[in-house]
Design goal:
416 residues, TIM Barrel, eight-stranded mixed β-barrel, 2 domains, globular, Enolase-like, domain 1, alpha/beta
């Protein structure tokens, strides 16, 4: 095969919430060689790249993606045909140049990412390599520690819980399959504990249970109960939180547990929890532009716990550089659709690694059966992955792909 892009196509497909998203195909030497779907977030940062929607209220409730699909077929395709498919950075540079906006509002981050990912898959296929190996090259793969969102709140659930995600982190195990099994068993144990207390309802967007609770701290108590009920110790399985605090922040005040508090008071609550519970990681503990709150908390607790910026950094190197300068966090959440291309995502991750920051590869709440992030986590040796509860095929697809990859990649080393 010559490895030359001969066509790029796109279509509307549905995500896990029944909302339209985009799927893109890359043809190499006349043959379909790569396909990818683009996820969508609910708790989105203000600084994220723009997801292009049609905004026609008569079609798909305004959520249609015909504009993005047309941009792939009518604009992007003609600029990529004739390109070697394995020149990923050049492909992504062309996409960025065509778009010409700082927030990807012309082509749409969904059109750009779908194309970038389908070309990535096609490149791997053309070289006869598993995607993780194509991404990682000579570095080899590292199986990630799973961060499994088993109790949902915030924008991911219809409950009174402010914190968006309570995650189990099975870190004290020798292999990925063992860690996954421990997380799955804890998920089922949580179901039993909630059922015992009459709090079992449905599940949230990411497959975790979504009970109403007396307080946010009760979520931590249930997590510990589930870990121990499953037969594990809190030395083997810890807890991570995605607070998504921008969702309940306004005018320098956080509405938390029905109280109005400032960032220092919120930080003091987290500090107490760090002392009392097996907390390993707190994501978006403060709002996306509350730089003072982030830096103050990091100065006190940064050596004790992983502090992860999601809405704070939105996978963009400029925001990350600002965070490094102000010592705002010690880890970054990585979501490809926050920036729009594979190359930009890798550049942001490299900047984080240069400053000894951890990287956590993440799904979105509106997901698909696409498993790219599983390979991406392994190939980049990120060490951590967030991809929801072991429930709903949009989440389980990623875990199943990681199980397949673990047959080839044995290295598993927790950052905790």
């Amino acid at each position: 095969m010559d490895g030359i892009i001969t066509g790029v196509d796109a279509r509307l497909v549905l995500d896990s919430r029944g909302v339209p998203t985009i799927e893109t195909d890359c043809y190499v030497d006349g043959i379909l060689a790569g396909r990818a779907m683009v996820p969508s977030g609910a708790s989105t940062g203000a600084h994220e790249a723009i997801e292009l929607r049609d905004n026609d209220e008569n079609m798909w409730l305004g959520k249609g993606v015909e504009k993005a699909v047309n941009n792939v077929v009518e604009i992007i395709q003609e600029n990529l045909v004739g390109m070697p498919v394995d020149e990923q950075s050049e492909i992504d540079s062309i996409l960025i140049e065509i778009d010409g906006t700082p927030n990807r509002s012309h082509l749409g981050a969904n059109a750009m990412l779908g194309t970038s990912l389908s070309c990535l898959h096609a490149g791997a296929s053309t070289h006869g390599l598993p995607l993780w190996k194509y991404i990682g090259g000579l570095a080899g793969g590292l199986m990630p520690t799973p961060m499994m969102n088993i109790l949902n709140g915030g924008a991911h659930a219809e409950s009174n819980v402010d914190i968006q995600e309570f995650m189990v982190v099975p870190h004290g195990f020798d292999t990925f399959p063992e860690a996954l099994r421990a997380g799955v068993e804890t998920y089922h144990a949580l179901k039993s504990e909630l059922k015992h207390d009459g709090r079992l309802g449905g599940v949230g967007d990411e497959g975790g249970f979504a009970p109403n609770l007396p307080s946010n701290e009760d979520g931590l108590r249930y997590m510990v109960r589930a870990i121990e009920s499953a037969g594990y110790s809190t030395d083997e399985i810890g807890i991570a939180l995605d607070v998504a605090s921008t969702e309940f922040f306004s005018e320098d005040t956080y509405q938390f547990d029905s109280q109005a508090i400032d960032s220092e008071e919120l930080g003091e609550i987290y500090g107490r929890w760090i002392d009392e519970y097996p907390l390993l990681s707190i994501e978006d503990g403060f709002a996306e532009d509350d730089w003072r709150g982030w830096s103050h908390f990091e100065s006190i607790n940064g050596k004790k716990i992983q502090t992860v910026g999601d809405d704070l950094f939105v996978t963009q190197s400029e925001r990350l550089a600002q965070g490094i300068e102000s010592n705002a966090a010690n880890a970054i959440l990585v979501k490809l659709n926050q920036v729009g291309t594979v190359t930009e995502t890798l550049e942001t991750m490299n900047l984080a690694k240069q400053h000894a920051m951890n990287c956590v590869i993440s799904h979105r709440s509106g997901e698909t059966e696409d498993t790219t992030i599983a390979d991406f986590a392994v190939g980049t040796r990120a060490g951590q992955i967030k991809t929801g509860a072991p429930c709903r095929s949009d989440r389980v697809a990623k875990y199943n792909q990681l199980l397949r990859i673990s047959e080839e990649v044995s290295e598993f080393r927790s950052p905790f």
